[in-house]
Amino acid sequence: MSRVRQDKVSPSKQAARAYLAAKSEREMARLLRHQARRALSRRARRRPLRASIKWQKWEMELLGKCPDREAARRTGRTVKAITKRRRLLRIWMFNSPVKRWQKWEKDLLGKITDREFARRTGRKVTAVRNMRRFRGIERFGGPLAVPWKKRELRLLGKKPDAIVARRTGRTLLAVRSARFWHGVERFGGKLRRWTKKEEKLLEQFGNAEVARRTGRSSHAVATRRSFLGLPTRPPPSAWTAEENALLGTMPDSELARKIKRTAEAVKSRRKIKGILPFHRQRRWTEKEDKILLRFTRQKAAQRLNRPLSSIEYRRRQLKTGVALNRPPRNWTPGEIAMLGKYSDMQVALKLGRTRSAVSAKRRELRIHSHAPHPRPWTKDEDRLLGTMADMVLARQLGRSYGAVFIRRRSFGIPLSPRLARRWNGLRYPTLS
């Protein structure tokens, strides 16, 4: 008598079956597709192969014949390594969107106009012009434009520019340029000559101001300025002693409005003079301190109209008992003589000042910071250069990675062959 063995179903399997039974066929298909995609993505992220250090010949032949991602999957290398190697060998990308130049296109450059060339090949005029200039080919018609004949010059101003361009076979821009350089008024209009008084304004003001004063367009002003060879912006006026005395006494934006200069010019001048920026500091009163200790930080900031960082800083100072409203301590000649001879922290500890105050005073007087003398290199340390990774050697010698790297490069010592990944000695092909 055979016994039928019944498998016990776990509670998790029962819950899964009940969950799937409640779903429709469409929802089930969607869930299964989602799980399949996740499995495929996890499988694609794996690297089934491990590439060797040297590039093999079959790997070289694979570059450019398939996408870089596919080549990375087949060779076991990263996509970045495949792309870098392909560019180094000057191999085009697989199915590159860039339209390559054919031999018949290169032979046609300079034999027809750039616009006609672009129309025939379906390229942009700028692309055609850049390729022609890159290959050193002159434009169609020679390096110089076709000179104007006397009978063509007589038509300027007597007919509209469009009609003159159609009769002479020239472009509208060429007709306008020739009429401008020969001083001919346009047809049906009057050419307004520039006076010496108007030209002097170009040396004193910008294009917008000259256009407003002369009643001309900004384009006309810019064209005249370029024709006279004047700079785009007038030279800045010299700073007076009164203006220099005002630097740092008020915010840069406020001083710029007062002396009619830009805020950038005021800031640059203040930095050249070594003057610190102006800061408005509101002193704390006893009434404000009581409000600060009575309310929370947010409510105190709203009532006192101060930033939250200032509220927190003042609270810490009240807890430590530091008096903020005392007058600042003046620097004595002996204290100033210590600046730069020791580090800012050492000077701060000796004088009983903060490190930020010492650093600010040193920068104000333009005194260089104290830099300790570097530890000299020994012969034993020099022998270790290149025998191991720079980071490991720096950790052993107690030096920085940058110091070890610069020292090794100054002697021209390469890394050990077992540390550097070397390429094989194949010749790199060039594209025609």
Quick rundown:
By secondary structure, the chain is mainly α. The protein has 26 helices and no strands.
Distance between the termini: 86 Å
Q: How would you sum up the major sheet? A: none
Please estimate the helix content.
40-55%
Q: Count the strands?
A: 0
Strand percentage: under 5%
User: Regions with pLDDT < 50 over 5+ consecutive residues?
Assistant: 1-6, 421-432
User: What string gives the helices and strands in order?
Assistant: HHHHHHHHHHHHHHHHHHHHHHHHHH
Q: Compute the CA-based radius of gyration.
A: 39 Å
What's the total helix number? 26
The structure class reads mainly alpha
Shape: extended
Average pLDDT, rounded to a whole number, is: 78
What features would you describe in this structure?
This protein has 432 residues and is mainly α. It is built from 26 helices and no strands. Helix 4 crosses helix 5, helix 16 crosses helix 17 and helix 18 runs antiparallel to helix 19. The longest helix has 21 residues. The N terminus and C terminus are likely disordered.
Helix/strand layout:
Layout: H1 11-21, H2 25-45, H3 57-62, H4 68-75, H5 79-88, H6 103-108, H7 114-121, H8 125-134, H9 150-153, H10 161-168, H11 172-181, H12 196-204, H13 207-214, H14 218-228, H15 241-245, H16 252-259, H17 263-272, H18 286-294, H19 297-304, H20 308-320, H21 333-338, H22 344-351, H23 355-364, H24 379-383, H25 390-397, H26 401-411
